Amino acid sequence: MRVVVTGATGGIGRALVAHYLDRGDEVIAVSTQKHQHIADTINGNCHWLWQCPPEDYVGRLSPILQSRLPDRVFHCSGILHANGKMPEKALKQFSAAQLQDNMQANCIAAVSLLQALEPFLNRYSQCIIAVLSAKVGSIEDNYLGGWHSYRMSKAALNMAIKTVSIEWRRRFPQVVLAAVHPGTTESKLSQPFQHNVPTQQLASATVTAARLATLAERLTNQDSGALLHWDGSKIPF
Ligand SMILES: NC(=O)c1ccc[n+]([C@@H]2O[C@H](COP(=O)([O-])OP(=O)(O)OC[C@H]3O[C@@H](n4cnc5c(N)ncnc54)[C@H](OP(=O)(O)O)[C@@H]3O)[C@@H](O)[C@H]2O)c1
Prior knowledge:
- This is SDR family NAD(P)-dependent oxidoreductase.
- InterPro entries: Fungal_SecMetab_SDRs, NAD(P)-bd_dom_sf, SDR_fam.
- GO terms for molecular function: oxidoreductase activity.
- It comes from Neiella litorisoli.
- By secondary structure, the protein is α/β, with parallel strands linked by helices.
- The protein has a single domain (2-229), classed as NAD(P)-binding Rossmann-like Domain (Rossmann fold).
- The protein has helices at 11-22, 38-41, 57-67, 96-117, 148-171, 205-218; strands at residues 2-6, 26-30, 46-49, 72-75, 127-132, 175-181, 227-229.
- Helix 1 (11-22) packs across helix 6 (205-218) and helix 4 runs parallel beside helix 5 (148-171).
- NADP nicotinamide-adenine-dinucleotide phosphate (NAP) is lined by residues 7-13, 31-33, 76-80, 82, 105, 132, 134, 181-182, 184-185, 187-190.
């Protein structure tokens, strides 16, 4: 199997890279970082694309996709806190800059990846694409408020996935494109908030990667456009 993982040095991304390499699959690991020693610690058939921001996805991924379409794509790139900015607790903390950063990292980056994939898809292409979103991006499920920019950017991401899936269903009927909530997982992203999470609800990145890989095996084109929990249940938009 050939697998593309973005955000490949992140908690969930790195665990997915390791999961598929352990199985003997070929992995294309995409990262915004400069080359890291991580490349030496992960063995197997891994092609790292270092320093690859979303605006480079088309140029850097195209030569690879041309040779063969991946069977699985996991878009694991995203932010909750960055540049010293924690998610908002109240409206007075909201800033346009924080929303723009979240929109870029959590929504626009994913759309750039879909644009990079599209020229290589046809009506016979079989490819499962899981874009990591978040349950807190559900408008209906929002009972707590807060985290304004993150929630807005993930809601926008969910809409992007739904919209593109409608377009692709006609043209690429065997491609599955879904937004997936990975569940609360130990990572840099969740680290500042883990004390609020009961231990049994906090998964290791390794467990989450295995869950996401299992989910990918079960997805069908009926799931395209949906926002799914890692166990495959639907989360309302
Ligand atoms: N962990 C959770 O509990 C949880 C819960 C719900 C949803 N999610 C979603 O799951 C996805 C993966 O999260 P994670 O927990 O693996 O987080 P993470 O450890 O922080 O990894 C996210 C990765 O995204 C990439 N990235 C791209 N642009 C970035 C930027 N401007 N600032 C920082 N990182 C950037 C980085 O990878 P590279 O440097 O390799 O590009 C980073 O390591 C995210 O979309 C997140 O919203 C996570």
